Amino acid sequence: MICWILLLINLTSCVCGTFVVNVTQTSYQAEENHNITLEWTFTTNTDSSLNSTFIYCTLTTENKESVLYDLRKGVEDPESQDEQFKGRVQCDKDVLKEGRIRLHVSRLRTEDSGPYLCEVSTPYGATYGECRLSVTVAADEPKLLRPQMSPQPESRGRIGLYVGLGLTAVALLAVCAGLCSAD
Q1: Domain spanning 18-136 has what CATH number?
Q2: pTM summary value
Q3: Hey, where are the domains in the chain?
């Protein structure tokens, strides 16, 4: 009878919500090639350590489930991480003890879009939180327009004009000088 009562108390504490996982943001938007931080919080208990904590974060699309992050008994398991995320996901382990999961995803790709589920299991409870990430194609950088410079025409025409005008002026001066001297 005592075992049934203890089991009932344990189940009631789990059902009543003593352990929760929340997302800091339910929806994230970013452009490809940028970085983003996905964040969840979970209920902590001062009696337990990370050695008894399991964290399993995934991206679930129509085609497959991709493991983003896997922590087993306080130890990261990089072997379970999907190829899509290898070398692009870092976890802030310093804030795990505070009940915060911060996953930094770098060099985003459009295929990183979708629902992210983070499951947390501890000796005092287990549950999950979900958020959605939408990665859009990077906008093209606006190209600076430079005015088109037309090539300078060769200056022979201008030189000819100046020479022609000069000769005309000399001729006019000569005519004027001749008229003045005739007087």
Answers
A1: 2.60.40.10
A2: 0.65
A3: 18-136
